[in-house]
Amino acid sequence: MKVMVIDDEPIVCKALRQLIPWEEYGFEWLGTAENGREALDMILKRMPDLILVDCKMPIMDGLQLLEEIRKRNLPVKSVILSGYNEFMYAQQAIKLGASDYLLKPPDLDHLLEVVRRVRKEWETENRIKRQLSEYAPVMRDRFLLGLIRGARISSADFAEKTEYLKLGLRNGPFVLALLQIEDSGKWNDGSYEDQQLMHFAVLNVAEETLADWPAKVLFQEESRRFVILANADGPEQAGSLRGRLQEVIRNVHNTLGFTATAGVSRLYGSLLHEGRQAYEDAKVAIQHKYYTGPGSVIDYADLRLEDVRKPPADPDGVDGEKLRIAMKVCNEGEVEEWLRRFAGFLEEHNVPHDETRILALQCMIHAAGAIRDIHPQLKPGELITAGQIEALFSASTLDELVETMQGYLFHLLSVTRELRKSGNNAIVEKTKAYIHEHYNRNLTLETIAKEVFVSPVYLSFLFKHVESVNLTDYIAHVRIEQAKRLLQTTTRKTYEIARMVGYQDEKYFSRLFKKKVGLTPTEYRSQWAGHASSPQA
C-alpha cells in the first residue's frame, strides 16, 4: 500500500516519516506535499493508496482535496489529521470518504493501528474487486440470458445492472438476432482453448462490424450460437439491422472461414417484458435455414407462418404409393421425380424440420417394404440400417435430407437389380425389358410368354410374385408414363399419342389416363405447360 502525507507543517511530515517504520508494516512511502493543490498533482501522477492529510492548509485545504478526489472518482483512502476538535470538520471529512479523523499531534501507536486497519480494509476491497472483475463476464451473461429467457427484472434493477456491467442497452424498442456458426466439425475438433479463441474471434468480428450501432450487446449463448441485442428507434432502423448482419456473416466467413446464419426477431417495445418473445422469434427464424440453406439472414417477419398447414401424418399424402411403384419397376427417373415432389410438399407446408425427418423415414420404410415384397428373402435389418437412419436424422437442411434419401433409394434399386439378374427374376427382367421396348404394340400375356419361353399361366404367376403387380397393370403403367412424356414434349393430339403408346381406342386411353394420373390428357398437358413456364421451373 502506497502512502503519502500532506501537511503545511514540515515538522509533522518529517516526524511521521522518521518515527513510523512504514516499510516494516508493508507500506511504501511516496513522499509529502505542503498543500492540497500540490498534493493533487502528485496524486494524479503517483496514485497513492492512502493519504494522511491535514485539515487546514493554504491554497487548498484537506477537505477541499477530498472533494476533488471524490469528483475524479480516484481510488484513494484518507485519514484526516487536524488540530481542531470540532464535530463539523469530522462529520464533513467522513462524508467525503475519510476513513478516520485524528487530532494532532496523533498518538503514534493509535495512528499505526488506524493505518493498519485502513490497509486491511483496502486489501479486502481489492480482493472483492478482483473477484468481481473475474466474475463480471459470468454475471453479464447470466443477466443477459435472464432477459431473453423471461426473468422478471424491475426497471431499477435493469438500470443498475446495465450501468454496473457497462452494457450499452436501454429499456426501449429492440431487435434480437441469433448468429449460428454452421461448421460444427471445424469448431468441435479444436481443443477447449481453441474453441475459446474461436468464440472470442467471432464476437470480435461481429463487434467490429457493428461498432457504429449506437446501442447493442453481443454474447455467446451456446457453443456455436451468439445473441445480438440491439436497440432500434423504429421499423426503418430495425430493418437496416438485416443488412448489417449480412455484413457480419460475410466478415466471419472472410476472416475466420466459418459459415454463419442469422435469425432476426420482430421489433419489440420493451426489453424488460418482451425479451423472451423476441428470442423465440429468432429461434423460429434461424430454424428456417432448413429450407433456405445456411449463410443467410432470415427475418421472422418474412416467414408466412400464418399460412402453415399441418401435413398429413400418412406418407401417402406425399404419394407414398407412387414411390412404391417406382421402386418395384426399378425406375430411377420416377424416383427422382418423386423426391422433387416430396421436397416441394415439405416446403409448401413449411413442415417443422423434425417432422420432415419422420416423414422421410416413413417413406424410406415404404420403399424398403416394396423391395421386400419383391425379394422376401431380404431381412428388414438388411434393407434399412441404424447408420442410414442416423444419417437421415443428421441432415441439417432440406437439400441434405433429400440427398440422403436419394442415396438410400438408389442403393435399394441397385440391390434389387443385382438380385433380378438370376433365376426366376431373370425371366421377369426379360419380360419387363420386352414391354419397355414394345409397349406400342398389341401386347398380350400369350405373346409375351412366347418371347420369354414360359407358359402364360406361369408368367402371370411369376410376375405377380416378383413384382407384386399384375402384368396387365405393369403394361398400363409403362404406357401411361410414355404418354406423359409425349404430352410434355410434343404437340401431338390425344388420339395420336394413344396409338403411339399401344391404344387404338382414344376414349379408353383417356379414361385409363385419368384413372391413373387424376387428370385427362388435355388437363395434364395444360398443367405441365403452366408449371414449365412458371419462374420456379
| Strand runs, count | 10
User: Which CATH architecture of the largest domain is right?
Assistant: 2-Layer Sandwich
Termini Cα gap: 78 Å
How much of the sequence is in beta strands?
5-15%
Q: Kindly name the structural category.
A: alpha/beta
CATH class call of the largest domain: Alpha Beta
Please name the fourth-level CATH homologous superfamily of the largest domain.
Reverse transcriptase/Diguanylate cyclase domain
Rg, rounded, reads 41 Å
What is the average per-residue confidence, as pLDDT, rounded to a whole number? 86
Helix fraction by DSSP (H/I, runs of at least 4): 55-70%
Briefly note the CATH topology name of the largest domain.
Alpha-Beta Plaits
Sketch the major β-sheet: 5 strands, parallel
Count of individual helical segments: 24
Number of domains: 3
Shape: rod-shaped
Contiguous runs where pLDDT drops below 50 for at least 5 residues: 312-317
Strand arrangement across the biggest beta sheet: 2-1-3-4-5
Describe the protein.
- It is a single chain.
- This protein has 537 residues and is an alpha/beta fold.
- The chain has three domains: 2-126, Rossmann fold, CATH 3.40.50.2300; 149-303, Alpha-Beta Plaits, CATH 3.30.70; 315-419.
- 61% of the residues lie in helices and 10% in strands.
- It contains 24 helices and ten strands.
- The protein has helices at 10-19, 36-46, 62-71, 87-95, 108-148, 155-164, 184-188, 192-209, 235-256, 271-287, 289-292, 320-328, 332-348, 353-374, 380-383, 386-393, 398-419, 423-438, 445-452, 456-467, 471-489, 494-500, 506-517, 521-533; strands at 2-6, 28-33, 50-54, 77-82, 100-103, 174-181, 216-222, 225-231, 260-264, 297-299.
- The strands form two sheets. A five-stranded parallel sheet has the order 2-1-3-4-5, sandwiched between helices. Strands 7-8-6-9-10 form a five-stranded mixed sheet, with helices on both faces.
- Helix 14 (353-374) runs parallel beside helix 17 and helix 21 (471-489) packs across helix 24 (521-533).
- The radius of gyration is 41 Å and the shape is rod-shaped.
- The chain starts with a strand and ends with a helix.
- The model is unreliable at 312-317 (pLDDT under 50).
